[in-house]
């Protein structure tokens, strides 16, 4: 039963798209997602130090990433449902707080077992932030800027990843991996700010008021709305495929990129961090451009261009050998490989009604995260059997599946009025 009432949420929000409300919602969503990005790439840099200190094998180290993402799937489903029932802002603050507390507890881990538990539960909190933030932004920004605003949320992840790539090599030798996890307590401050400064979207409040006047038996269930009819079910399958390829390629690449540069080319930790940062900068540029293009030309054409670019650039990058080529090629690869994250918020928001919007964002994207969790394992296994170069070249082929899903399963709904 939907239990939100006008008195249970912040005072009535300004009209959708009003500048102040929209900007506060955007800032809150960007900051929450930036914390997620910082945490996961920071973990990639820390795996060697954690493994040495806790005597972990390669499979155990990789599983820390995998189970973080598995936890994100559970969190995405649970917090998506809660957000469609209790409100975007309230539940977003819960997810950030849960993520912050259990990331901080990782600093106290005594061995593999308890660290794995902390990482999994931190993942539960992480899983809720993306979809709720995307729904919050989509419901507060005007339709003609929806993809651009959603792309800014995606840029939040890159902001966090870029900070991790630049700060972790400097901080890790000073404070150790436990000190780095203690930094994860900072999102608690963001959680407080979210609850105090951001209003619920007017669109959601209107939906909640209508739901209160509707008998419980006649209220649609959010998960059922993801497969409400044949067209919606096809779109849900298509979005799940897109999100799976996105996350598999991203995590498979970014978790192992520092190790690839170190083992294959002898780069130091600092140099690996700088070259990885160039790739992340390319990703940020790609996300920004995606939002602009998707608002101007449509969601489907923009996705198809980026997917084709990912096929080409990942394959090309696997064959580069000189430092200059790796720097420039990494940035170009980043544009296409992760630029697509700029489109999911708008695409999913336009496919589903307010009663299921956060659920759709979180469930579908976190299905992708669950599949993506096997990306580091797959790349690691292929690298062990062949080489990192071969593993990356094979990674390029998965984006062909993305192209097929976009062509045959995803409808175009650019800038439609949200239901």
From TrEMBL:
Alphabetized PROSITE patterns for the sequence: MFS (PS50850), SUGAR_TRANSPORT_2 (PS00217)
SUPFAM superfamilies per the UniProt record, alphabetical: MFS general substrate transporter (SSF103473)
Localisation: Membrane
Any Pfam family matching the protein: MFS_1
Keyword Ligase found: no
UniProt keyword annotation of Disulfide bond present: no
InterPro entries assigned to the protein according to its UniProt record, in alphabetical order: MFS (IPR011701), MFS_dom (IPR020846), MFS_trans_sf (IPR036259), Sugar_transporter_CS (IPR005829)
UniProt topology in membrane: Multi-pass membrane protein
Protein name per its UniProtKB record: MFS transporter
Organism field: Paraburkholderia dinghuensis
């Amino acid at each position: 039963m939907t239990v939100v009432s006008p008195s249970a949420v912040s005072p009535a929000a300004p009209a959708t798209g009003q500048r102040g409300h929209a900007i506060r919602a955007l800032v809150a969503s960007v900051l929450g997602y930036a914390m997620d990005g910082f945490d996961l790439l920071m973990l990639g840099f820390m795996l060697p130090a954690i493994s040495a200190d806790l005597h972990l094998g390669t499979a155990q180290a990789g599983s820390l990433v995998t189970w973080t993402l598995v936890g994100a799937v559970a969190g995405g489903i649970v917090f998506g449902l809660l957000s469609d029932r209790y409100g975007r802002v309230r539940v977003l603050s819960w997810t950030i707080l849960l993520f912050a507390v259990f990331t901080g507890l990782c600093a106290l881990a005594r061995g593999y077992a308890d660290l794995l538990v902390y990482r999994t539960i931190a993942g539960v909190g992480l899983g809720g932030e993306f979809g709720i933030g995307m729904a919050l932004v989509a419901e507060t920004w005007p339709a003609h800027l929806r993809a651009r605003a959603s792309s800014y949320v995606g840029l939040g992840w890159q902001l966090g990843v870029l900070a991790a790539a630049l700060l972790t090599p400097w901080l890790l030798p000073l404070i150790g991996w436990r000190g780095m996890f203690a930094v994860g307590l900072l999102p608690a401050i963001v959680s407080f700010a979210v609850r105090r400064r951001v209003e619920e979207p007017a669109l959601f409040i209107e939906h909640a008021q209508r739901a209160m006047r509707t008998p419980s038996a006649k209220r649609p269930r959010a998960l059922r709305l993801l497969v409400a009819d044949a067209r919606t079910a096809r779109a849900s399958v298509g979005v799940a495929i897109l999100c799976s390829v996105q996350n598999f390629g991203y995590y498979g690449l970014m978790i192992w990129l520092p190790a690839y540069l170190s083992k294959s080319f002898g780069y130091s930790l600092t140099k690996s961090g700088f070259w990885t940062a160039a790739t992340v900068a390319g990703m940020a540029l790609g996300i920004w451009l995606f939002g602009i293009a998707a608002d101007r030309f449509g969601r489907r054409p923009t996705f198809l261009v980026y997917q084709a670019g990912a096929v080409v650039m990942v394959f090309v990058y696997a064959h580069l050998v000189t430092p200059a080529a790796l720097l420039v090629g990494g940035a170009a690869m980043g544009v296409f490989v992760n630029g697509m994250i700029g489109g999911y918020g708008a695409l999913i928001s336009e496919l589903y009604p307010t009663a299921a919007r956060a659920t759709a964002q979180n469930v579908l994207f976190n299905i992708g995260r669950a599949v993506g969790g096997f990306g580091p394992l797959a790349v690691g296994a292929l690298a062990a059997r062949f080489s990192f170069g071969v593993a990356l070249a094979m990674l390029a082929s998965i984006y062909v599946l993305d192209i097929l899903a976009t062509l045959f399963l995803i409808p175009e709904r650019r800038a439609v009025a949200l239901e």
